Amino acid sequence: MSAQSANLIDIFHARHAGHEGKPALVWRGETVCSFGDLPRSIGRYRAALAQLGVRRGDRVMVKTDNSPAFVFTYLAVLASGAIFVPMNAAYTAAEVALLIEDAEPVLLVHAAATAVPDLAEAPVRRVTLEGDGSGALPDLAATLEPLGGAEPMGADDLAAILFTSGTTGRPKGAMLTHGNLSSNVAALFETWRFSDADTILHALPLFHAHGLFVALHLALFSAATLRMLPKFDAKAVIAELPLVSVFMGVPTFYTRLLDNPAFTRDVAAARRLFISGSAPLLPSVFNAFEERTGHRILERYGMTEAVMITSNPYEQAGRIPGTVGFPLPGVSLRVIDGARAEVPTGEVGEIEIKGPNVCRGYWRRPEATAESFHADGYFLTGDTGFKDSEGRVTISGRSKDLIISGGYNVYPAEIEMILAEVSGVQDVAVFGVPHPDFGEAVMAAVTLDGGAFDMGAMEALIASRFARFKQPKAVHVLDEFPRNAMGKILKAKLRETYAGSFS
Ligand code: MLC
Ligand code: AMP
Questions:
Q1: Which of 70, 141, 307, 390 could form a disulfide with 184 if both were Cys (CB 3.0 to 4.6 A apart)?
Q2: Do the domain assignments include residue 485?
Q3: CA 307 to CA 289: how far, in whole Å?
């Protein structure tokens, strides 16, 4: 490896010395490759990407479910010096089209049957990769000699662009560098006391920051074995838990485990660590988990733009339900008021952060970047919260209009924009209500203008435009919206009215 290279792949490989014979990746119970095999597997995919025309700085977009081939494709994109652009495998063709237009990938890697737009007009090559790990890309890789090593990269060079929908409804791509990702995994390694003695159970989707940059990166950085599943399934997780030391997931994973009587104290007994994040973990779930297993879940706070930001302490007694702990090493976190002055201890304000983990801005969106970053480098998270006298952080809400359902983000503006165009609709509001499984569920309410309105047509539009997790679980037709004196729809009032919908 080049001594100067900040390519994550070089960093990972250097940490695998002495672990060549150890399983790196176990998929559905079977070892796929050892740490010694890993460079050759990545090299074959790198050769395949080169043959498909991928060069340094190119964007490679991926729309498929978890598989070992997904992992090799990701690592090969980084090794090539190209930029990885994952997306939710459940996206509709309309959602994918927006991202392609913005990211201008040279290659789209996708499952054959998945929704992708007609690319006849766009200069994008396509290659298949199925959810079971088969497809034209793995077939091609299997025929090629590995293209060894990794392209030397600087810490500020882009590794990945992850799109979030944002409050305007238009997707914006967070630009994450090799330096962002390596600094963050190093901070997590230290904070959560990882070592090569660990085995991680991975049931998160690989297309989001949590599954990709936390679970996968920690395994690679620690030379820990990764046991990966296609997706979260309580039964499969319970079967694998006795074989691992660490499990991580969104709060829905924990409520689903607790709902399963087979999840016993014995199953959890010898595990080292259970971690939760991506959405608030209810203290009731934290307490029920402790009662059942004796483990206190370690809750941490992150976001796509900065990967992981804060964490509860490693010591069990220091993990306090309802709080997200302290900033990770190297991360600064301030709670500010409207004038950007730091608020006193215990007072709620906007959370802003700075550190080597924070992204370089939004891809080709200088105005969105300028809105989120201050001149002094602090990034406005859109979350609100407070610090206690020790500096421990509690998230109390969000200033951004965002619903988090089962750990997936849904930006109301994106849905409102489309529903407002439906004939007969006068006004629309999309909001979140409590949901026992997903934490929050998406709801919509509309008022009508007196013209022809067809609920069936509206539902069909929703189904064709939005991935299932973004689709409102119900659409209510109202005579009028609750509004404030300025005429603004009061979403808090709507949330209150429909709060009991799923209880
Ligand atoms: C699936 N559905 C959802 C949903 N997931 N609806 C709302 N919210 C969700 N999250 C839909 C399905 O399409 C289905 O629709 C119905 O709800 C029930 O499906 P299911 O079979 O019960 O769902 P399942 O496939 O099991 O998925 C649930 C889940 C999944 C919790 C396992 O959503 C998941 O893996 N979430 C993790 C998300 C994640 O990794 N977030 C990290 C983002 S990074 P129907 O009606 O057709 O039956 C980040 C930064 C950070 O936030 O801090 O980590
Ligand atoms: P995403 O854009 O998918 O990365 O989601 C990031 C958002 O998830 C953050 O800005 C928070 O609003 C929320 N989030 C992540 N972790 C937590 C947590 N532990 N508690 C509360 N909210 C969280």
A1: 307
A2: yes
A3: 26
